[in-house]
Every structure is written in structure tokens, then in C-alpha cells.
Amino acid sequence: MTQTKPDLQGRLALVTGASRGIGYFLAKELAAAGAHVIAVARTVGGLEELDDEIRTAGGEATLVPLDLTDMAGIDRIGGAIHERWGKLDVLVANAGILGVIAPLGHVEAKVFDKVMAINVTGTWRLIRAVDPLLRASDAGRAIILSSGAAHSARAFWGPYAASKAAVEAMARSWADETKNMNLRVNAVNPGATRTAMRALAMPGEDPATLPHPSEVAARILPLASPALTETGLIFDVKQDRFTRYQMPA
Q1: d(C-alpha 231, C-alpha 242), whole Å
Q2: Is residue 104 scored above 50 in pLDDT?
Q3: Overall pTM > 0.85
Q4: 245 among known catalytic residues
Q5: Average pLDDT, stretch 89-102?
Q6: Could you give the CA distance from residue 223 to residue 220 in angstroms, rounded to a whole number?
């Protein structure tokens, strides 16, 4: 896919998990392309640092400190955007947690429930809150962060893999529901990236061998372009192409 930076002047983008990692750098990329960024995350310090960098570069941001287990809070975001702007042009559903790397039978119920609450239910609640706002845009774009774990289903990654498989299924269903509209919905497999989550999952790995999240964010940015035509697909960052995963007949 072409890596031409899209012109997002006058557009509004919502990014969850924006205080660090891929979400942080994608928020910066969106702002540099001209979008006003609504940055959502639990960590206030990370959001303030992001805001400083965006404003120093001449961009604009609105900060929303929020834990995505706060479902009523997610609903309020949708209402606030409607009242202030009346629409949303770009959604980046990036926030997620790993949980634990362990045999399924050893995972505590509270850990499994939290992974599903943030990664799946929180993402669904976010989709529900902003769906009418994205439909109101002349070129709504939804970017849903997934993982290769959704397809590899590696040993000990059960809760995380299951959550990302669910997220991809929701993204594809949503894309099919809106395929005749101006909304385009795609999932993203960012691949192994130099993030805190990756370090937690693979403590013996040399982070210097992995791409920096700023590199990954730059590759994802074109999915926010008003010119994008693809929908219902999975964008593989490492391969730099869209893939359609289909169940065997």
C-alpha cells in the first residue's frame, strides 16, 4: 500500500491507548497530518507529554483520561463528541492489555475477565458510541488494532489471542454492515513492535531487533486517508498489504 501521508486537515481523530506505544505515535502522526486528535488513555502523564509534543509541532489535541473498563465513560465520549463536533472522521481503537502468558487452566478468572473487558467489551462499547459519528463523516475511517496472535493461537497466549480474534470478528461484521456507506473499517496486525507490552510478553527478546512504534504508526497512518477504499480487511504492517482471512468452506 502506498505510504503517502494523507491530508487530514480539518478532520477529527479519536485514539485510545494514546499515552504510549503505537497509540502515542499514531496520535502524533494524525496530528502532524492535520487532524485534531482526541487522545484517550489511563495515564495522565503520558497524555500530557503527548499533548506537549503535538502542540509544539503546531497540532491540536483534546485529552481524555479514561480507563476503558469505565463503560459509562466511553458512552460519555460519544455524547461529548456529538455535542461539540457532530461527527468523527477517524477512530483508532488501540487500547488493550496482555493479561498473562500462562496455560489456560492456570489463568485466574479475574485476569481473564479484565482482558475481555478492556480488549473486547471496551472496544465494542467504543464502536457503539462512535458508530453514528463516523457515519456522519464524509469519509469515516475505523482502524482496529489486532494481533497475529488472533491467528497463530500460540500456546500460553489464550486469553489475549481470544480477545484479538473477537475484535477482528467485530471489525469485519461492522465493515460488512457499513460497506455501502462512506465508512471504511479495517483491522491491523502491527507485528512484533518495541513496546512495553511486547517486553512483558517476551522478556528475553532484544528490543533493538524490533521496529520502533513510531515506524509502525507511520505505516498505519494511510488507513486514515479519506481516499482509502478497502474495508473489512486486515492490514499486515510487516508485509505492508491487506489480507482477507476466511474460514474454510
Answers
A1: 10
A2: yes
A3: yes
A4: no
A5: 96
A6: 6
